[in-house]
Design a protein that fits this description.
By secondary structure, the chain is mostly helical. 91% of the residues lie in helices and 0% in strands. The protein contains one helix and no strands. The radius of gyration is 34 Å and the shape is rod-shaped. This is ABC transmembrane type-1 domain-containing protein.
Length: 79
């Protein structure tokens, strides 16, 4: 009986250790996923948004230049 009881204790310890290890693994995986998502969002905000802003500014400057060029090129109609 002593051996069986000891053996059962070992099984309980193994089960507890396995559960603790699973919980730790799940927590680590969740933390890693959250960190990766935060890093990706920061990279997108820091790199992509300024690039988009610069492209939009260049397009706006080109459009304004074309518009002013058209205004300069259009013949002045006397009233």
């Amino acid at each position: 009986m002593r051996y069986l009881y000891y053996h059962d204790d070992n099984i309980v310890v193994v089960i507890v250790v396995v559960v603790v290890v699973e919980v730790v693994v799940v927590v680590v995986v969740v933390v890693v996923v959250v960190v990766v998502v935060v890093v990706v969002v920061v990279v997108v905000v820091v790199i992509v948004l300024p690039v988009v802003a610069v492209v939009v500014m260049i397009i706006m400057i080109i459009l304004i230049a074309l518009q002013s060029y058209r205004i300069l090129e259009s013949p002045i109609v006397p009233n």
